[in-house]
Amino acid sequence: MRPNLLSSALSLCLLAPAAPALADDALADDSVDTSATGADADTLDTVVVIATRSERSASEVPNTVDRIDREDMDRQLAHDVQDLFRYTPGVSVGRNSGRFGIGDIRIRGLGGNRVLLRTDGVPVGDAFAIGSFANANRDFVDPDTLKAVEVLRGPGSALYGSDALGGVIAFVTRDPEDYLDADRRRHVGLRFGYDGGWNGLSAHATWAAGGERWSGLVAVGRRKGQEHETQGEDRSDGALRTAPNPEEREGGSLLAKLVYAPDEGQRLRLALDTSDDRSRTDARSSRGFQSLTRATVTDLQGDDRRQRTRVSLQYEADALDWTLADRAALQVYRQDSRTEQRTDERRTTSTGVAQRRERAFLFEQDGTGLNADLQRDIDTAHGRHSFGWGVELRRIDTRQRRDGLATTLATGAQTPVIPPDVFPVRDFPNSATTTAALYVQDDILLADGALRLIPAVRVDHYRLRPEPDAIFRADNPGVEVADLSLTRATPKFGAVWRFSERWSLWGGYASGFRAPPYNDVNIGFTNLSFGYTALPNPDLEPETSDGVELGLRYAGPALSLALSAYHNRYRDFIESLRFIGVNDDGLSVFQSQNVARAEIEGVELKGDLDGDALHPRLQGWRLRGAAAVSRGEDRDSGDRLESVDPARATLGLGYDHDAGRWGVELTGRFAQRQRRLADPARYRPAGYGVFDLTSHWRFAPGARLHAGIENLFDREYTDWADAPGVPVNSAVLDRYTRAGRTLALDVAFSW
User: Fold this and answer.
1) DSSP code of 686?
2) Exposure winner among 132, 170, 231, 721, fewest CB in 10 A?
3) What does the alpha-carbon distance between residue 188 and residue 176 come to, in Å, rounded to a whole number?
4) CATH number of the domain enclosing 717
5) How far apart are CA 121 and CA 201, in angstroms?
6) pLDDT tens digits, residue range 325-371?
7) Is the separation of the CB atoms in 340 and 302 below 8 Å?
8) Structural domains of the chain, count
């Protein structure tokens, strides 16, 4: 990997202290309180938890961290997961052009199960896909139940264990205390929304009440809509269709919490969090002649459903008198997630036989766990220590099954054989994975608070136990499954040096890992008719990463800047279903193996300019922006990593009038064309610049309106994350475009 990108960024970090000179001159205005530190006025000083598993100012952590709070979500009209990260550098969310909705969530070029998702400290279910009729994604979160989202970019296994290879996204749901205080004991809220991108209608109701010790919250949401719009105009049936397939979507969510606080320093929190989403798709693009089977599909209907239920009990204490802790957070939980997808296909075979094919896919994960996080502050002669430690215990049971039935319509004859499968099948055996982990961390404050050192290490013991049943045995005769047991230590070290009142330099090293998953260790399929088989691989090694990062922050009353540069190396990436040869029976043999090494480096910049503090004539004005430039390389082949996004930037100019009673913001989203690919026959979408206009209006006490126009100038564009593997000569490139000009509205009332 050529070092110029990272070295250039590091040079910028060293030279950047001269950058805000103009802003500092403007701060001399008498109307500005120049005595305020960066922590007093800086958006970078938002309190975050994800970086250290304890509350810290974002300016105090040696990591690149973003926090999206409720106000940001409302002003951005975030109606789905993709909307949440629209303005977060280094994070991209693809959208599936077929029937399965939200695609991959990537951080700095890594996605899938290499990015850890958590909701209130509980891991979100895995993604799993196999073939054209089975795709279990991780879109289990209703944004309207959230009060914040925190994003840790870069390896996070030193605190969060396996799967935090590329980073961590933490979803934080609402609590009763978000609505209540000493003067307000009850709250009722209603919210109604519309999103033109999928003709979606939503309604949410929130009730909260409480007293000195008891408080509770109930939030209920419903949504209903259609397919996500594109700018494809061909509405014919068949492979040349570019318009989205007709789809009916509906879903709902329930969040309920009961909180008991015996005193100001203790809270016992019981939570129930559920979601249920369903979509019915008329897959008209799948109709017509199929060259592989020489059959003609006359109709294909999809019926997909995702369900998740979480129950958790959490104890929080802020003033303990324990030897090992003066603050603690303990949680036990149970979470069940389920994806069920059914496909009903009508076709005419190559011999002219009318046939119905029914397929069903089921993917389930049931998880039980315990988390404990404890903190102890210790003052010494050399500095102050905030010592943190914790344990995680978790068991996850994973089950997957595919069923199929072919019916000859003329005779009613039925068969479970739909080549190449004889149903039912399991592509891996039922599996139980257990994790036991311990982490320790010390936050050391030296030099009168100017220097902060944060070392940490976590040890994970991971065990995979397959539980093959009759279905798996029948589909894989003679195949012996394998257990897997491993122990992994992942360290990190970070430092923050506040070398002036407004400037700080930070850097660090972090490691990450991902344990070999159940489907790669024991992938299972054998088909004698088609001549192939798959073998388990108990010798798989964990995927690992080593990352270094250096950053510079400026936090002033008017201007805040954050610049970071990173370099991550990855080893032992697992390639699923790798062809390894032919066995003695003449069958082609496939096996998952550790084969790939890669490195990714980049530079990220985020800034905010507040006109109120800059000059009286600029009161109400705000300028904010973010940019990310990265590149990745396969260290074995020298090819570019296609999962790494091209350069992106966001720039927003906003105005708030009359103490925020109303305001508008014009935001530009820009992306560069992907310059270099390993496969020249791969489609590379053009770069683009798209503008959005959003507004907010508090038109009465307890009533507000948010309205926005996305893609204001109706630009036709395709995002790189939406077109994986598309050939450059495809006749249906418009199928992968994002929506044109669309309107979004939210109106909310509270009492």
Assistant:
1) P
2) 132
3) 11
4) 2.40.170.20
5) 30
6) 999 999 999 999 999 999 999 999 999 999 999 999 999 999 999 99
7) no
8) 1
